[in-house]
Design brief:
- With 179 residues, this protein is an alpha/beta fold.
- The protein is built from 5 helices and 9 strands, in the order ααββαβββββαβαβ.
- It has a 7-stranded mixed beta sheet. Strands 1-8 form a two-stranded antiparallel ribbon.
- The longest helix is centred in the N-terminal third of the chain and has 21 residues.
- It starts with a helix and ends with a strand.
Length: 179
């Protein structure tokens, strides 16, 4: 096995370990949980992407202290995501995350959309937008989830990342399809 394959395998293993550790407390939910396993995995990915993205006010010497996360509206996804964030807070992870809805007047650094925004709701400039599916079309999206070979994958638009002055870890880029 070449060293490149070993590095890629190690990166995937670490990412999935982090994802499954993050998902563990969510299993306490009832069996009638309305959120699919796919959406739970998207929530875990969405949260863990933060560890691999550096925002403009973030550096090794001065890490971001507060990151504003915007979700589209109240859904089972939001409830599950908030539970994941609470688990992360309990571990003392940085940066601190503030979760809000796009319908509230706010600033967003990182946004999750499960449907396209209407023209009048277009508040996504200057932040990283993650789309729940490649079936959604939204200008300015930086990361898009898609299904390939019955597996959840994601695509990163490097041009959009650069326009928003963020950098993405090479470890995350190795796992992504690059646009």
């Amino acid at each position: 096995m070449s060293w490149i394959c070993r590095i890629r395998f190690a990166a995937v293993a670490v990412l999935f370990f982090v994802l499954f550790v993050s998902l563990r407390p969510a299993h306490a939910a009832s069996d009638q949980d309305p959120l699919s396993k796919e959406n739970k995995l998207k929530a875990a990915y969405f949260l863990n992407f933060i560890e691999f993205i550096n925002w403009p006010n973030d550096s090794q010497n001065s890490p971001a202290t507060l990151l504003y996360i915007c979700l589209q509206d109240e859904t089972p996804f939001e409830e599950f995501f908030r539970a994941l964030v609470e688990n992360r807070r309990a571990k003392g992870s940085k940066p601190e995350l503030k979760i809000q809805r796009l319908s509230e007047p706010n600033h967003c650094d990182y946004t999750y959309l499960h449907q396209p925004l209407a023209e009048e709701d277009l508040k996504i400039n200057g932040n990283i937008v993650v789309l729940a599916s490649d079936q959604i079309s939204q200008q300015g999206a930086a990361i898009t989830f898609f299904i390939a070979d019955r597996k959840l994958r994601f695509e990163i638009d490097l041009d959009t990342m650069q326009k928003n002055q963020v950098t993405v870890s090479s470890e995350l880029l190795k796992l992504a399809r690059i646009k």
